[in-house]
Design goal:
This is Diguanylate cyclase. Pfam families: GGDEF, PAS_4. Its EC number is 2.7.7.65. One of its GO terms (molecular function) is diguanylate cyclase activity. By secondary structure, the chain is of the alpha+beta class. The protein folds into three domains: about 10-115, PAS domain (Beta-Lactamase, 2-Layer Sandwich), CATH 3.30.450.20; about 120-245, 2-Layer Sandwich (Beta-Lactamase); about 255-420, Alpha-Beta Plaits. It contains 15 helices and 16 strands. It has helices spanning about 10-15, 35-40, 45-50, 55-60, 65-75, 120-130, 130-140, 160-165, 180-195, 240-255, 265-280, 295-305, 305-320, 345-360, 390-420; strands spanning about 20-25, 30-35, 80-90, 90-100, 105-115, 145-150, 155-160, 200-205, 215-225, 230-240, 285-295, 330-335, 335-345, 365, 375, 380-385. The strands form four sheets. Strands 2-1-5-4-3 form a five-stranded antiparallel β-sheet, sandwiched between helices. Strands 7-6-10-9-8 form a five-stranded antiparallel β-sheet, with helices on both faces. A hairpin with a 4-residue loop joins β1 and β2 (about 30-35). α6 packs antiparallel against α7, α12 (about 295-305) packs across α13 (about 305-320) and α13 crosses α14 (about 345-360). The relative contact order is 0.07. Residues about 1-10 and about 410-415 have low confidence and may be disordered.
Length: about 425
């Protein structure tokens, strides 16, 4: 697990926090980890897999030819994901295989395999097919939101659980009350279900009664007539707002600086790699700026680290006020910050940004609850792609060297004055 996720405790936490049973295999197909949900699952396969750590996942499913082919394609980077239904005794589930890649090289490290329990969904589909009365009885006592529509998305039935989750029962069209950004994705999901005749899954947002957006996980399944055509569609949705909130919080921890709210070093490095690839493909130029606070150690020593933190937050606030919407700002650590200036025309664009930023910094910062102000000053170094390098590493090195020379200028000037006085 550590080798696949670069020993990231955060990635381990995400894996262990998943509500669905999940397994990690390396690129040789060896099981390296099973999450807590998987070990506690009543599904026979997962109980057995728990005894097969460090053994072959492929060997366990050696009789499932289609599944083996799907896993092999993911591990060989022929596909990024693969899904297959599996039925065992009283349980049915969807196995979803997702490739794990090293960023930014895209090297395949292995795969994340998630088990999605579809037992209730299968039972409801069978009941709906064999008898509407039994289906309605089950649906009306289910905590999941169950909806039946025609092939155009017009609602034919909506379970009472919609009232408990959303605060209302929407009975007109399945696309009503869906977040505008998710409508196209839902339409595509239903279209794929109609074409393939198979179930598929999607996470989307539905509007609650109070106007807030509620995240739901929706499984879309076809109801097939005797002639093989899709007659109706069953959508079973479950509230996953808490899970999405957890994912958001984990993402905040992974990619954002806790003090300033800016992107952290990890996210900025990813953004630099993405910008480099885009600029290379489009023949564009971009710049990386590195800046730090002059005499920040003096501020900490004089006013204390709490004031130092406030100064860092103010610096970040003023930096955000200078950048354009397309530019990206972050904190590398300590008193060091960085900005990616996208699609620049030349060095004049950089100098214009630096002049504007230095002008914004001229306004003294008043320390809260103290009748004192401090002057925030900054030194800046920069590099331009591709003039100063063709990799993020070389561009950062050039910008860092220029920053060092900028910080040395006052010392050199002072030394020169002292030498002139001594003559």
């Amino acid at each position: 697990m550590d080798a696949l996720f670069h020993a990231s405790a955060l990635d381990q936490l995400v894996f262990e926090s998943m509500l669905e049973p999940a397994v990690i295999i390396n690129k040789e197909g060896i099981i390296t980890s099973i999450n807590r949900t998987g070990l506690d699952s009543p599904i026979y396969d997962l109980q057995e897999l728990g005894k097969h750590l460090n053994q072959s996942y492929l060997e366990f499913y050696k009789d499932q030819e289609d599944l083996l082919i799907g896993i092999t394609h993911v591990l060989q980077a022929k596909e990024t994901t693969y899904s297959q239904k599996v039925i065992h005794d009283d349980y049915s589930f969807l196995i979803r295989i997702i490739s794990l890649k090293r960023q930014p090289s895209e090297e395949i490290l292995g795969a994340l395999i998630v088990y999605i329990d579809t037992t209730e969904q299968r039972r409801l589909e069978e009941i709906f097919t064999t008898g509407a009365k039994q289906f309605r009885l089950i649906a009306e006592h289910s905590k999941d939101m169950i909806k039946v529509t025609d092939t155009e998305g017009n609602v034919e039935y909506a379970s009472p659980s919609h009232e408990a989750v959303l605060g209302y029962i929407d009975q007109s069209n399945v696309f009503d009350y869906v977040h505008p950004e998710d409508v196209i994705r839902l339409k595509r999901l239903i279209s794929e279900t109609l074409e393939s005749g198979e179930s598929s899954q999607l996470e989307l947002r539905k509007k609650g009664k109070s106007g807030d957006w509620i995240w739901v996980e929706t499984v879309c399944s076809p109801v097939v007539s005797d002639d093989g055509s899709v007659r109706d569609i069953v959508l079973i949705s479950r509230d996953i707002t808490e899970r999405k909130q957890l994912q958001f919080e984990l993402e905040q921890m992974a990619y954002f600086d806790f003090l300033t709210g800016l992107y952290n070093r990890r996210k900025m490095r990813m953004a630099m790699e993405e910008t480099l690839e885009q600029s290379s493909n489009n023949g564009e130029h971009f710049a990386i700026l590195i800046m730090d606070l002059d005499k920040f150690k003096w501020i900490n020593d004089t006013y204390g680290h709490d004031t130092g933190d406030l100064v860092l937050k103010e610096f970040a606030h003023r930096l955000l006020g200078c950048k354009s919407e397309k530019d990206i700002a972050g904190r590398l650590g300590g008193d060091e910050f960085t900005v990616i200036l996208k699609t620049i025309n030349g060095s004049e664009d950089i100098h214009h940004f630096i002049r504007r930023f230095q002008l914004v910094l001229r306004e003294p910062y008043t320390i809260p609850y103290k009748e004192e102000s401090v002057q925030i000053k900054s030194s800046v170094g920069y590099s331009i792609y591709p003039h100063h390098g063709d990799s993020v590493k070389s561009l950062l090195k050039h910008a860092d060297n220029l920053l060092y020379r900028e910080k040395r200028k006052p010392i050199k000037a002072l030394t020169a004055r002292l030498l002139r006085k001594s003559k």
